[in-house]
Amino acid sequence: MDIRNCKRCNRLFQYITGRMICPACKEEEEKDFQKVKDYLYEHPKASMAEVSQETGVPLSEIKHFLREGRLIITPDSPMGIECEKCGALIKTGRFCEKCAIELERDVRLASDSLRSPIEKRSYMLDKTDPKKSKMHYLNKEKIEGR
Predict the structure, then answer these.
(1) What is the pLDDT of residue 100?
(2) In a domain, 84, yes or no
(3) Domain extent at residue 137
(4) Which residues lie across from 5 on neighbouring strands?
């Protein structure tokens, strides 16, 4: 059993997974999310400061909803957050498309460098062997001798 202090209210609670906030604060956060979502539905071009002021939800929480990808912001909205890598303005998530591609490539290269030489060889053979790169199925008639 994992007991933690809630990051919002500092109460003790039994932590299972996800953010380290208690069930009461999760419920409150869900209400705040709904307020922001409803306000943005009615005012799609509102700024983040305006949304915060009108809903009473702190800017940090609105940014958290955007980082989680829970909010959908219209492309022409002035609202946005910074890419965690390059600082470019993005509408949702943690990274811009360019940085996400770079990070994916870096992770793939790091993963490849951790493979043993034998694994690398078999991995590369699988990619170059046309028989192994296609989908296969068993021909029951051939097996049963029909």
Answers:
(1) 93
(2) no
(3) 95-146
(4) 12
Whether residues 44 and 8 fall in one domain: yes
- Residue in 46, 49, 48, 39 with CA at minimum distance from that of residue 66: 48
Q: Yes or no: say if 11 and 5 are a contact pair by the CB < 8 Å rule.
A: yes
The confidence score (pLDDT) of residue 122 equals 57
- Convert the pLDDT of each residue in 16-53 to its tens digit: 888 889 999 999 999 999 999 999 999 988 999 999 99
Check whether residue 35 and residue 71 sit in a common domain: yes
Q: Which amino acid is at 60?
A: S
What percent of the chain shows pLDDT beyond 90?
A: 48
Note whether 53 and 43 are within 8 A (CB): no
pTM assigned to the model:
0.67
Reduced to 3 states (helix: H, G, I; strand: E, B; else coil), residue 125 is helix
| Whether 38 and 101 share a structural domain | no
Three-state DSSP at 30 gives helix
- Tell me, yes or no, whether 50 and 103 share the same domain: no
Q: What is the pLDDT of residues 53-109, one digit of tens each?
A: 999 999 999 999 999 888 878 888 888 899 999 999 998 889 999 999 999 999 998
110's CB contacts (< 8 A; 6+ apart) are: none
